[in-house]
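Hello,

Following up on my earlier ticket. Below are the two sequence lines again, exactly as submitted.
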Amino acid sequence: MQFKIRAANKEDCKEISRMIMELAVYEKMPDQVKISHEELERDGFCQNPFFECLVAEVPEHHKSREGFTVVGYALYFYTYSTWRGRSQYLEDLYVMPEFRGNGIGKSLLSKVAEVGNQKGCVRLQLSVLNWNTPTRDFYAAKGAQDLTDSEGWHFIRFDGQNLENLVNEAPKDE
Amino acid sequence: MQFKIRAANKEDCKEISRMIMELAVYEKMPDQVKISHEELERDGFCQNPFFECLVAEVPEHHKSREGFTVVGYALYFYTYSTWRGRSQYLEDLYVMPEFRGNGIGKSLLSKVAEVGNQKGCVRLQLSVLNWNTPTRDFYAAKGAQDLTDSEGWHFIRFDGQNLENLVNEAPKDE
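Thanks for your patience. The regenerated structure is below:
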């Protein structure tokens, strides 16, 4: 199947927003999505964007049942390792179910790595849910290492009230 | 003990570099550190910095045995949640052993959260090694959630040859 990987533009945010919800449904946490396409437009297409995004597009004659031609996306940002330096984090990689098995996900992933390589990034990281075997196998097959299994790294998060508490405890500047 | 939390400047990179190594030794992975203070200067103090950093400084009369007055640091960067939006990731939080127990780590953490709050961040994330009980307890006591335990998130990494392979497989632009 023909498809094209390209950098997302502001006008793609509605499509990206739709697919973010589709991915959350797959991850069994649709109620977690609190973000609008307006926020994506604001945060991804400003002076110092919080993220970058690639989209996969198919020709009109391959469009989805619902008539979509933007059928996948990879949303990532730049991070930093104090051991190795410039790195990338892949927040989301998604291909609509009816378009899977055509190498679109693999192409999105490789393109993200290529963009990072051009910026001097030496790592590409992401996270997966332990029950999500197809996804874990997808990355493992490409040589990715599971650092939670191999080194014992755990994800920690502050949000909501416990984050507010931290903010309120911050020392006041003289 | 008196101490001050302030934004790091370029001139602090040698001290930050020294403490990055001290932290890696504590984490039992000193051989993993491949970064120089010149790289920190380049990547943290450029147009679109890859990270931001706070340092903890004590007065001259409290200086460390080796004569250091910069005794802790918190290195973080901005990330993005496609569910919640603007977020922060705390890459490193470190206080020199002889200065622990004075609230310096807590102040660094709170100050990072305050800076994020001013930027509209709704999450502060980080990762810890599962054997590092003191650190896990430190964050848990402040209400942080362990997402690896509660939701089953695993860290995945591409680097070295497997990352190069991805880059080389990227579809070529027409």
